[in-house]
Design goal:
4 domains; 5-stranded mixed beta sheet; 22 helices; mainly alpha; two-stranded antiparallel sheet; 63% helix
Length: 603
């Protein structure tokens, strides 16, 4: 504590060089991000043409300068430089793996040149944890620093990041407000200025550097704001503990089926565990006796630490049920990793209640240990060691080959669009399969998934193909006694019922409804085709081929009334109320305002 006071007393004498260093780092970061953004513009140039280089460079440019910004003034330049270099190597390695794992765009216009969102999220959390551990270890010159030091650094930097992000957001709000004011007097220069990359990048990084520096040179204010916030939120702990006690006490007397049927039980339970851990730490803080004197909060902290165990058990149970039904997916593997972290907290905090000489003293060791577990999991999951895509593909292919799931129920599209390069390799192997009773189906569906250009088409390709007779059985034709022209369905819908829309042909909703109508007395018949959410118009051309020529625009959400009227013939054709607008050779149809659905009358 004396060393901290001396450091804060000496801070003004060295704040100017640190501030200038932060500004220089911000300008260099802005330059790097600007060059990368320019390379990304069409037509792309190097390094955006090489994903294995662009993604690591982008991640390093976005992350490492922030490490330097936060580390300046906390530790000496040499250990800070070493730590920044190690962080850069690790981040670049994870980015390289993300670029080379063979992700496939699941939908049109999805960019594959940018790093995955899950990697960015994991890097943010991992870099924050690692930076706190490194800074504290360097300051105290030991691998496991004292808990009060660890608590102070972690929460100080957390508050700094929140304040810095808020400052940058308000900074840009002020700029856009100023641009709007100038726009009122027809001056558009300011708006165009702030939207240029050469202005936006340095403005943002410099604003971030200023906010970090201002919060760094006023540690007493940061600690005061932190203590106030933690003390305030710690009073939520008794409320949460009582709610969870009621929930857990009711479980022996009710069925758990509704919980499992939500399909998000694991995520909900993990969110409760995270909230409980946060509030327990807000109550415990750095373990000083004067911060834990409230009997209500001490009781709630003890109860909450015990409640973590059954909550973690329920989350594990919920996840195991889903895995037992459907096997491992990438999301379930990530959920399992979070469950490992939650279990570390649960066991560590429960043991603190039983074995600690002082109130919850051993949660300090649990927090340290869990921090290293989180870092290890991030390194494993976002590297070839335990990539969720690789693990998912291995499990799902094993389920398919063992017969645990039928070939016609297997999601081959998931292998391509979630399985990265391992999924593509598995599909290539399955497309050549010749052994086994299901080999023809597996080979055909694997080949279809390989050829699919987006996830929607992959799902459609996996739909069961139907014969013309099976498609016709899904259509009710009016007037009664009529039938659809030969080849009508085959020409306008594929055998899975997916060309035009054909949701009703795929068994979605009610049967399709087709009615022969006469649009003009001097012309031949047309067909109104009623699907789940559409009413389509088909007409025959001069060669007798039936083609879609239009679709109905109006209150189609009144589906019951529309369907019933077309089915019974209770409708008439009227000319357009509004004329079309012709601009050059383009014709635009004017649609009147849609009326509300008629109220339902009681029978």
């Amino acid at each position: 504590m004396f060393g901290r006071a001396m450091a804060e007393r000496d801070a003004p004498s060295r704040t100017v060089p640190i501030f200038l260093a932060r500004l220089l780092i911000a300008l260099l970061q802005a330059l790097a991000l600007y060059l990368l953004a320019e390379a990304l513009e069409a037509p792309r140039s190097w390094p955006a043409t090489a994903r294995q280089l662009f993604i690591p460079m982008l991640l390093v440019s976005a992350s490492v300068p922030l490490v330097l910004q936060l580390g300046l003034g906390q530790i000496r330049p040499r250990p800070l430089a070493i730590w920044a270099a190690i962080a850069a190597v690790v981040i670049a390695g994870l980015g390289y793996h993300d670029a080379m794992r063979g992700r496939v765009a699941a939908f049109p216009n999805e960019s594959m040149i940018l790093p995955s969102f899950s990697l960015c999220l994991a890097l943010s959390a991992g870099l924050y944890i690692a930076h706190v551990l490194v800074v504290d270890a360097v300051i105290e010159r030991r691998l496991v620093p004292s808990y009060p030091r660890h608590f102070d650094t972690a929460w100080k930097q957390g508050v700094q990041m929140v304040l810095a992000a808020s400052f940058v957001g308000v900074f840009w709000a002020v700029l856009y407000l100023g641009a709007a004011l100038f726009k009122l007097v027809d001056i558009d220069f300011f708006r165009r200025l702030i939207e240029h990359r050469w202005f936006a990048f340095p403005a943002t990084t410099l604003a971030l550097a200023v906010s970090v520096h201002v919060t760094d040179v006023q540690p007493a204010l940061i600690r005061g704001a932190r203590s106030l916030a933690l003390t305030l939120f710690s009073w939520l702990l008794p409320l949460v503990a009582i709610i969870l006690l009621g929930f857990l006490a009711s479980l022996p007397f009710i069925s758990l089926a509704p919980l499992w049927q939500t399909h998000f039980a694991t995520a909900l339970l993990l969110a409760e565990i995270g909230l409980l851990v946060l509030l327990i730490n807000a109550c415990y803080q750095d373990g000083a006796a004067e911060k834990s004197t409230s009997r209500i909060k001490r009781w709630a902290g003890t109860l909450g630490a015990i409640e973590l165990v059954p909550l973690a058990g329920l989350a594990i149970w919920a996840l195991s049920l889903r895995v037992g039904q459907y096997g491992w997916s990438g999301e379930r593997i990530l959920a399992a990793a979070i469950l490992i972290v939650a279990s570390c907290y649960a066991l560590g905090y429960a043991s603190a209640v039983v074995a600690a000489p002082n109130w919850l003293k051993r949660i300090e060791a649990a927090n340290f240990a869990t921090a290293y577990v989180v870092l290890a999991l991030i390194l494993a999951l976002f590297s070839p060691i335990a990539d969720p895509a690789r693990l998912m593909v291995a499990d799902q292919v094993a389920r398919l080959k063992s017969g645990a799931i039928a070939a016609d129920k297997f999601d081959f599209g998931a292998l391509k669009f979630d399985g990265a390069r391992w999924g593509a390799a598995a599909l290539a192997e399955l497309s050549q399969q010749k052994d086994g009773a299901d080999a023809p189906v597996i080979a055909a569906k694997a080949a279809q998934a390989l050829a699919a250009t987006n996830r929607y088409l992959a799902n459609q390709n996996n739909a069961t193909h139907r014969t013309p007779e099976e498609l016709a059985a899904r259509v009710t034709v009016y007037p009664e006694g009529r039938s659809l022209p030969a080849g009508f369905l085959e020409a306008n819908f594929d055998s899975a019922g997916a060309a035009v829309s054909g949701q009703c042909l795929r068994g979605i909703g009610q049967k399709c409804l087709a009615r022969f109508v006469t649009l003009h007395p001097s012309e031949g018949e047309a067909i109104l085709f009623v699907d789940v959410t559409e009413v389509l118009l088909f007409e025959a051309d001069a060669q007798g081929q039936w083609r879609k020529t239009g679709e109905m625009i109006g209150p189609l959400y009144c589906s019951g009334a529309i369907r019933q009227g077309i089915q019974t013939g209770n409708f008439q054709f009227e000319p357009h109320v509004l004329p079309d607008l012709v601009v050059g050779d383009q014709r635009l149809a004017m649609a009147p305002e849609r009326p509300p659905c008629a109220p339902q009358t009681s029978q």
